[in-house]
Design a protein that fits this description.
This protein has about 130 residues and is α+β, with helices and mostly antiparallel strands. The chain has a five-stranded antiparallel sheet. It starts with 6 loop residues before the first helix and ends in a 9-residue tail after the last helix. A hairpin with a 4-residue loop joins strand 3 and strand 4. The protein has three helices and five strands. Helix 1 runs antiparallel to helix 2 and helix 2 crosses helix 3 (about 105-125). The protein is about 35% helix and about 20% strand.
Length: about 130
């Protein structure tokens, strides 16, 4: 039956199954992501990781025992004026934000970061050049 579920239904199921602060945090982050751009789509990858796309991968929402990790696929190329990134800082591509129980979420700064990631994805799309 699980194979018949949409990615969004699987994410709903993950949030419900967590049943603790991690589910609440993942649900909150998901609301921010989806509100940032109405054209964001949801996928279910790698045996249980919610992934959000718009013009390419924007971010993932991984859940661990002590953290909810929001990994931005091209985070190293993004400006982070609010200093949200606090994990995976050494890589050439990705950057992540680890949220722990009781952490506040700066929704305005997070929305700006999500929109910047989307803008980067859309800017990298190859354009068709007309030949004269």
């Amino acid at each position: 039956m699980d194979e018949e579920q949409t990615p969004s239904q699987r994410i709903d199921g993950r949030i419900a199954a967590l049943g603790d602060w991690r589910g609440e945090m993942l649900a909150r982050l998901r609301r921010v992501i989806l509100a940032a751009d109405p054209e964001v789509t949801e996928e279910w990858k790698w045996r249980g990781v919610p992934v959000w796309y718009r013009g390419g991968m924007v971010c993932t929402g991984e859940t661990y025992k002590a953290a909810v990790k929001m990994t931005f696929a091209k985070g190293a190329a993004l400006g982070d004026p609010a200093h949200l990134f606090n994990a995976s800082l050494d890589g050439n591509q990705r950057r992540a934000i680890d949220f722990h129980e009781g952490d506040e979420v700066d929704e305005a700064a997070l929305t700006a970061l999500i929109r910047a990631a989307i803008a980067l994805n859309l800017a990298k799309k190859p354009s068709l050049k007309r030949q004269s």
